[in-house]
Amino acid sequence: MSVKITGISNVLSNLQKVVERVKREATQGTNEAADAVLEGGRSFVPVDTGNLSGSGYVVAKGKQTPPPLFSNTNRDGEESVSNSEIDDLYRRWDTEIAMQRERTNVKGKHRAVIGFTTPYALEQHENTGYLHPFGGESHYLRKGVAARSPEVIKIIVGNIK
């Protein structure tokens, strides 16, 4: 007795299409979730010139935050950052983005890197003794992750149909 199975190539082809679609949708979900986390972090960022918040980025497969618009004036309209310091902020941003693009370019992985590139970003994030009279607080990225974590999985799963 023998059994003949037909159509197995169609089944395999259809399964491959489903796998590719799920990968695309998972990538899209990861990108949207990373955007949500960045925005969550920005809501806690200390404010003076806005450059710290503006330096926030997301790098993920098929995605990159557009370059920021750095300012050399503070909240009172006074120049607080020189033009050469602004140029340094842009160079630092470009360097960081290039480095993070390498970290996220891993076949079969859905990774996103979220961060802030100003030279003082880490110090502002970690120093709990700083006062922030115009708003914001330390651990802004960590707090943004915590604030947005309930929706992150929903965003990713919601993209996979």
Describe the structure.
- Helix 1 runs antiparallel to helix 5 (140-159).
- Strand 1 and strand 2 form a beta hairpin.
- This protein has 161 residues and is mainly α.
- It is built from five helices and three strands.
- The two termini are 42 Å apart.
- The chain has one domain (11-159).
- The protein has a three-stranded antiparallel beta sheet with strand order 2-1-3, with helices on both faces.
Q: Would you kindly provide a brief summary of this structure?
A:
The chain is mostly helical and about 160 residues long. The chain has one domain (about 10-160). The protein has five helices and three strands, in the order H-H-E-E-H-E-H-H.
Q: If you average the pLDDT, what whole number results?
A: 85
Backbone structural class: mainly alpha
Described by strand count, sense and barrel closure, the largest sheet is: 3 strands, antiparallel
The count of strands amounts to 3
Could you tell me the strand content as a percent range? 5-15%
Question: Which segments are poorly predicted (pLDDT under 50) over 5 or more consecutive residues?
Answer: none
Tally the helices: what do you get? 5
Give the fraction of residues assigned to helices: 40-55%
How would you classify the quaternary structure? single chain
